[in-house]
């Protein structure tokens, strides 16, 4: 009995496999047909099918009515008629052929007009969707600007970025929960200056992922004195970015001085307080008129010199047994007539930058130089020249 049972199983299995093979093609057909039945695809597909059918009907009728014309000639005539090229190498001579040609051209031009309208409509909807911030950004190495306190502030920031040697070529993506004056779309003229707009609450991972923060280069947070709550939202968002993507540079503009205290807690890379700067320079300008002009040149990439903080090849110099003092380095810069002026040291063990440190300060391998220059100075590239000059001074 067991032998017969085993003998009878293969036919059933074969039948099952046969039914499976019949089902597989049906499932594939359904997968092809289902997208074609969607509302946005149905009309273009119908028009495409209608055009193809019409071309073949025209070709057949043309070959039947016109003496000496074949089916291929009919297809060629249909093409040059529908596209309004009209080479004239083939044309209808009979009344019936001319009537068919007129009807075909009218229907064809109408179908092409509808096609064009569909394409333009989809392009407009796609652009509107992007300007509303409903899409995602998939680029890499971009700079994310969080919040839009005003369009003028964003314009000024973009102008400065255009002049930045480090970030002028970086794509810019704006991320904001809302726009000024409750606008729904990002302004068209300003939208042309950025590479993407993401609308949503910045403090959620979903919104940050839509802006592709994991592949971003840096993130700038704008704030507003009229919206002090932005400081808390920015701090939370920057902390979230530092936790998940610590390689992204995070810089905050704060409207409250106490917000800067949170930078170290959340490992945020840097921040500025606009009110402190404004009040401080207001008093300094009162005491010494013209100070703000100096600050404007130092803080902007448009003109004058800028402040830079750069690593130096001090560690390489120390490997040679050199003890480098700040005073010797300053003397060397003067002797070589290098286009830079050292104004401070950024040391890892110190919370604040050491401005105008004493000349007998010994430079450490981890120190960074704070200096003024018209452009970033290549310390490493001119390291050997500087070391040789220091040896001569010593």
Describe the structure.
It is a single chain. With 394 residues, the protein is an alpha/beta fold. The chain has three domains: 39-123, Helix Hairpins (Orthogonal Bundle), CATH 1.10.287; 143-281, NAD(P)-binding Rossmann-like Domain (Rossmann fold); 306-393, Alpha-Beta Plaits, CATH 3.30.70. 52% of the residues lie in helices and 12% in strands. It contains 14 helices and ten strands. It has helices at residues 2-36, 39-65, 71-82, 95-131, 151-162, 188-191, 205-210, 229-244, 262-265, 274-287, 291-299, 314-319, 326-335, 383-393, and strands at 143-146, 172-176, 196-199, 218-221, 249-254, 270-273, 306-311, 341-346, 354-355, 368-373. The strands form two sheets. A six-stranded parallel sheet has the order 3-2-1-4-5-6. Strands 7-10-8-9 form a four-stranded antiparallel sheet. Helix 6 (188-191) links the parallel strand 2 (172-176) and strand 3 (196-199). Helix 2 packs across helix 3 (71-82), helix 2 runs antiparallel to helix 4 (95-131) and helix 13 (326-335) packs across helix 14. The relative contact order is 0.06. Residues 1-12 and 14-24 have low confidence and may be disordered.
Give the SSE layout:
Layout: H1 2-36, H2 39-65, H3 71-82, H4 95-131, E1 143-146, H5 151-162, E2 172-176, H6 188-191, E3 196-199, H7 205-210, E4 218-221, H8 229-244, E5 249-254, H9 262-265, E6 270-273, H10 274-287, H11 291-299, E7 306-311, H12 314-319, H13 326-335, E8 341-346, E9 354-355, E10 368-373, H14 383-393
Parallel strand pairs: 1-2, 1-4, 2-3, 4-5, 5-6
Antiparallel strand pairs: 7-10, 8-9, 8-10
